[in-house]
C-alpha cells in the first residue's frame, strides 16, 4: 500500500511537471493560440521558400546610390581664406629666398579673410575665389613692368579654406581638408578610421546642400559596390551612427545567453547561435528554435520557427537574416522542464520526508 501510494504520487508529479514547470518556454501551440491580452502573432516556418522571400524583400528594399552623388566630379581647386600659397619667381632671388625651411616660409603668403594676398612689387591682389593658374597669371602680369619675361610658379602649401566634417563612431572624427587632389568618400572614412566596437556600418549619413543621404558602408565589400565613385566637396558632413540599437537578444537553452551587438547590415541566425555557443546539448529542444520579431508602432509580432533537430537545419539558419531587436529563443526539452520542476518543488529532502511520512 505504501509503495503504491508513493508511485502514484511520483507519477502525478511527472505528468504535471511539464505542464507546470517554472521558467519560460514556447511551443507551436503557444504561438498559434490567440491571447486576448497579448499581441497578434503570425507564425512563419523557416524553409527554403521563406529564405527566398526574405532575399527578394531585401533586394527590393536596397536602394541604389543616388545618381547626383555618383555624377559629381571634383572641380579645379578654388583658393580661399586661410590657405597658404608658396610663390616662386625663377631667376630672381630677391623675390624668392631658396634654401632652409625658414627661407621657405618667407616665400609663403597666407590668404587673408577678405581673400587678398600681398606680394612685393605687385601689391595686394584678390586670390580668394580663384584657381592657382589664375593667381599665377595675376602675379606674372603684376611683375611684368619691373621684370621682363618673368617666370612665376604658385602652389597651395597648406589647405585650410575647404573642409569636410566627420562625426560619430570614427576613431578620429573631425575636419578633413579638401585639397587639389579629389577626396573620395572611401578615403575620408579610411583616414578617420571606423570604431568597429561602436559603429553601425549601415548607418552612415552624408549631408550635402541641406539633403541627407543614408549610405551602407558595409556594401563596400560587395563586388558591385560603387562607393569608391563618390567624391566629397567643401561643406559635406559625414555622421556614422552608433550600433547601440543594433542588438540581437539570444535567450533560452543556449550555452551562453547574451545580447549581441553588430556593426554590419545584418547578422544571420546561425551567427547568433554560434556566437552564443550553440544549443545546449543537455537541455535544449532542437524543435523549439524561435525568432521573435515585433513590428514597430503596432501590437503585432512575427514568430519564425526553425526545427533544428537535424543538423541540416543549420543550412537554413545560415541563410536567415536577423533584424535589429530580434529575440532568438531556444526552448527547453520536456525532460529538462520536468527535471527543473522536480528539483525546485521537491528536492531530495522532500522526497525523503515524503517517504518517511508514508512509512509512519
TrEMBL record:
A GO molecular-function annotation: polysaccharide transmembrane transporter activity
GO biological process entries: monoatomic ion transport
Signal peptide bounds: 1-21
The keyword GTP-binding is annotated on this UniProt entry: no
Keyword entries, A-Z: Cell outer membrane, Ion transport, Lipoprotein, Membrane, Palmitate, Polysaccharide transport, Porin, Signal, Sugar transport, Transmembrane, Transmembrane beta strand, Transport
PROSITE patterns according to UniProt: PROKAR_LIPOPROTEIN
Membrane association type: Multi-pass membrane protein
InterPro entries per record: Poly_export, Poly_export_N, SLBB_dom
Gene Ontology, cellular component aspect: cell outer membrane; pore complex
Domain (Polysaccharide export protein N-terminal) ranges: 73-156
Record domain SLBB: where: 162-239, 247-330
Any matching Pfam family: Poly_export
Gene3D superfamilies: Outer membrane lipoprotein wza domain like, wza like domain
Subcellular location: Cell outer membrane
UniProt record similarity statement: Belongs to the BexD/CtrA/VexA family.
Official protein name in the record: Polysaccharide export outer membrane protein
Native source species: Pseudomonas abietaniphila
Amino acid at each position: 500500500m505504501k509503495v503504491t501510494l508513493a508511485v502514484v504520487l511520483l507519477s502525478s508529479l511527472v505528468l504535471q511537471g511539464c505542464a507546470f514547470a517554472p521558467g519560460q518556454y514556447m511551443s507551436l501551440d503557444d504561438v498559434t493560440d490567440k491571447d486576448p491580452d497579448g499581441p497578434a502573432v503570425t507564425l512563419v516556418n523557416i524553409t527554403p521558400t521563406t529564405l527566398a522571400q526574405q532575399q527578394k524583400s531585401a533586394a527590393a528594399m536596397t536602394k541604389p546610390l543616388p545618381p547626383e552623388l555618383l555624377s559629381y566630379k571634383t572641380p579645379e581647386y578654388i583658393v580661399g581664406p586661410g590657405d597658404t600659397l608658396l610663390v616662386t619667381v625663377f631667376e630672381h632671388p630677391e623675390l624668392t629666398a631658396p634654401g632652409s625651411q625658414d627661407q621657405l616660409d618667407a616665400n609663403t603668403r597666407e590668404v587673408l579673410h577678405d581673400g587678398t594676398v600681398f606680394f612685393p612689387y605687385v601689391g595686394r591682389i584678390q586670390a580668394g575665389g580663384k584657381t592657382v593658374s589664375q593667381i599665377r597669371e595675376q602675379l606674372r602680369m603684376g611683375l611684368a613692368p619691373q621684370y621682363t619675361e618673368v617666370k612665376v610658379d604658385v602652389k597651395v602649401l597648406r589647405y585650410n579654406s575647404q573642409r569636410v566634417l566627420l562625426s560619430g563612431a570614427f576613431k578620429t572624427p573631425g575636419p578633413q581638408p579638401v585639397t587639389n587632389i579629389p577626396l573620395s568618400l572611401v578615403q575620408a572614412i579610411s583616414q578617420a578610421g571606423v570604431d568597429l566596437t561602436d559603429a553601425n556600418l549601415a548607418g552612415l549619413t552624408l549631408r550635402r546642400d541641406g539633403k541627407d543621404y543614408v549610405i551602407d558602408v558595409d556594401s563596400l565589400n560587395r563586388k558591385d559596390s560603387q562607393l569608391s565613385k563618390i567624391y566629397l566637396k567643401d561643406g559635406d558632413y559625414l555622421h556614422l551612427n552608433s550600433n547601440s540599437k543594433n542588438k540581437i537578444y539570444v535567450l533560452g537553452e543556449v550555452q551562453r545567453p547574451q545580447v549581441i551587438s553588430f556593426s554590419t547590415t545584418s547578422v544571420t541566425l546561425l551567427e547568433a547561435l554560434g556566437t552564443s555557443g550553440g544549443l545546449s546539448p543537455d537541455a535544449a529542444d532542437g524543435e523549439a528554435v524561435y525568432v521573435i520579431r515585433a513590428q514597430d508602432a503596432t501590437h503585432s509580432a512575427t514568430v519564425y520557427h526553425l526545427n533544428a533537430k537535424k543538423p541540416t537545419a543549420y543550412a537554413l539558419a545560415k541563410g536567415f537574416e536577423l533584424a535589429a531587436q530580434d529575440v532568438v529563443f531556444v526552448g527547453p526539452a520536456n525532460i529538462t522542464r520536468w527535471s527543473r520542476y522536480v528539483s525546485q518543488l521537491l528536492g531530495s529532502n522532500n522526497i525523503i520526508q515524503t517517504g518517511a511520512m508514508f512509512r509512519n
